[in-house]
Amino acid sequence: MSLRNPRSPVLFALCLGFASLAPAAHAQNVAPGDIDRLAGLLVEMMPIGDVFDAIAKQDPTWPLQERPDAVTAEQLACMRGELSSAGYRRAKRADASAYASAHPSRVRGDIALLEGGASVLFGRLVMEGAATEGGGDSNAVLAGSTPAQLLSFMTVMTDPKHAALREAAGMGDAIDATRSAEENEKSGYQLGASIVTQLMIKSLDTCQVPTSAILG
To answer: 63: cis peptide before it, omega within 30°?
Structure first.
């Protein structure tokens, strides 16, 4: 599914990632500025909000284009705000805070690792997958990286000690270097659909929209 033909957000899938919907936690012994930096890198790594913005720009009734009359103008505006780059950043700020609370000693090192190239490369892969049918050409994206960026990327993706960081970023174990490209593509599609479904349901609750608006 591409940006040129967006349909129901429940069916729309990104190439990889999973958005945690846990409430914000207070991060002990981690500076707010570091949490903000980590959140920004997680957003860059999984730029789901940018994809939402692109779809919303194309259709003023998104994400309820199939049943726009099921909600008020205020409710639709609220949902579009939640399913946007700003709304997604709020969610990832909560994820970064929760991660920092659980792993305060790792935050500075994780920021340096992500800034080394992993974050920008993952982000390019996500946008490539969102903009093209079939997931795009990941090899072409990675071929344009420097050795240092590729090392950062592979470290985040494969090192067992970064499993918690992968969860915070949203990818979990969707991408596994031991699996085939086809298996990873299928896993990423399924996980992408889960991202959008969960964010959609959360927006219903936040905006006080009945479930029937998407299921009726």
So the answer is: yes
